[in-house]
Amino acid sequence: MTVLRIVPNLHAVDPASARVFYGDLLGLDIVMDHGWIITFASKAPTAPQISIASEGGSGTLVPDLSIEVDDVDQIYHRAQSMQFDIVYDLTDEPWGVRRFYVRDPFGKTVNILSHK
């Protein structure tokens, strides 16, 4: 038996409101839209992962999602210009990632990161 995919399901009264954050900000494609559920995906190959944590590192709360990108600085500046709520500023962490936390339209804390 092999796990092929792990998909977080976030509750939203209006799933379409995710388009600006997950589509426009992060550049994810809509691969399924039934109105009541919208699935966003990247063309990049990925391996299924799930993290279990007691804290978010550097004394932060555990984020609801972590999304690795190829250019965290670009996404950070885009998030600022789109006036998303940055809840943990862009930081170089001692374990080799550069990241920030931003709140999505549903109040979820999203850790956006790149490996250095």
Sum up the structure in keywords.
4-stranded mixed β-sheet; 6 strands; two-stranded antiparallel sheet; 116 residues; 2,3-Dihydroxybiphenyl 1,2-Dioxygenase, domain 1; alpha+beta; 2 helices
Give me the secondary-structure topology.
Elements: H1 18-25, E1 29-33, E2 38-41, E3 65-68, H2 72-81, E4 86-92, E5 97-103, E6 109-115
Parallel strand pairs: 3-6
Antiparallel strand pairs: 1-2, 4-5, 5-6
Can you characterise this structure?
By secondary structure, the protein is an alpha+beta fold. The chain has a single domain (15-43, 57-115), classed as 2,3-Dihydroxybiphenyl 1,2-Dioxygenase, domain 1 (Roll). It is 16% helix and 29% strand. The protein is built from two helices and six strands. It has helices at 18-25, 72-81, and strands spanning 29-33, 38-41, 65-68, 86-92, 97-103, 109-115. The strands form two sheets. A four-stranded mixed beta sheet has the order 3-6-5-4, covered by helices on one side. Strand 4 (86-92) and strand 5 (97-103) form a beta hairpin. It is globular, with a radius of gyration of 14 Å.
